[in-house]
């Protein structure tokens, strides 16, 4: 028997029709915005930007006469000495804690998922271009930190604040203030995506896939721990980072070395693949679709920058809070972040993926890294990598919370600090359960846009860095 339809009330049919039109309009608007952001993202992370970042790093390395590479050993010595806090009137945390805060923000999903994605899309040669990015990136990060410390200020809470926005304001003058404001806006917004929700989303997926933990549980627990740390400010963040980052980095490096020992006979062939395919195409093999040289360069450089953030200007924000009377010494400690992050941790991840042979499996992202660890340590390698991903992502949330806080403080003043911290903590559980495809795309775009004002200021203020460096080493 056919169902009888209820007679439509006056205007109801029109309402339904309008509702359908409104729904279609909303979908069209969302699609338009998504396509627009995709277009901007393609420009931001396209060849011109990658050339600009690499070119700026090479220019600075040449201007510094390769000092960052020549003084790596001295930098590690300063880092070890920097474990002591020093005069509190010159900063809030020790230089070592400042470096660990920087590493907390950079050693994250980029070291696990980012490296795997670069190899999946660009082949083994992508790892070579990650190394190139890191080598010139040491000069970039050195200059970022030197300028951040040299031009830092003391806010109305008597805490030291610095970063590209302050370097632009105090180094380039009032007419360039708009450029510092642009950096602060990009950083203040990007942090919620790339430094918060994307990270906790990765944590939630790793724990769900490996241990069956519901995403909402991960979100709530992460929110509690993040709140306990960041509501205490940079001093508490620095203490937690100084304890957690070295421990997790050493444990991860040890696990990666175990994988390489298991596949020791494949290491020479792995290096051959890396150097060969950095300059020649790699053909399809197994689940690997093949890649041109341009893909190796693009994804190697882009994922390298995503991992170590050299060129984005964030490192100087944390280093400006360190107890120091020398911008150059702070710069030499700060540049080690790029060395440790990419040349050590990312290299070991990449070599583990290549030597184990899983790079041709067709798996991408964190799953590819997990497969490599599982191949080297059957039964628990994948679970170990999931735990590492969770800890890495957690510390990234802590480090980026400070970056975002200082961006908003620059824009609004110290009155923004506590509201920002509360909003940051509340965003954590949302990120654990939400679909973040668009949020990730937007945050990635804003993250790249941070590089534009930072790179321009580095080029314009490079004579100051050279002078400070020359004066430091001529009058030790």
UniProtKB/TrEMBL annotation:
Topology class, membrane: Multi-pass membrane protein
Primary subcellular site in the record, as a coarse category: membrane
Segments crossing the lipid bilayer: 44-62, 98-122, 176-195, 215-234, 241-262, 274-297, 339-359, 379-403, 423-443, 449-466
Keywords, in A-Z order: Cell inner membrane, Cell membrane, Membrane, Symport, Transmembrane, Transmembrane helix, Transport
Region of interest called Disordered, as start-end residue ranges on this chain: 1-20
Superkingdom field: Bacteria
Keyword match Acyltransferase: no
UniProt xrefs under InterPro entries: Na/Ala_symport
Keyword check for Membrane: yes
Localization terms from the record: Cell inner membrane; Cell membrane
Family, similarity comment: Belongs to the alanine or glycine:cation symporter (AGCS) (TC 2.A.25) family.
Protein name: Sodium:alanine symporter family protein
Originating species: Pseudomonas benzenivorans
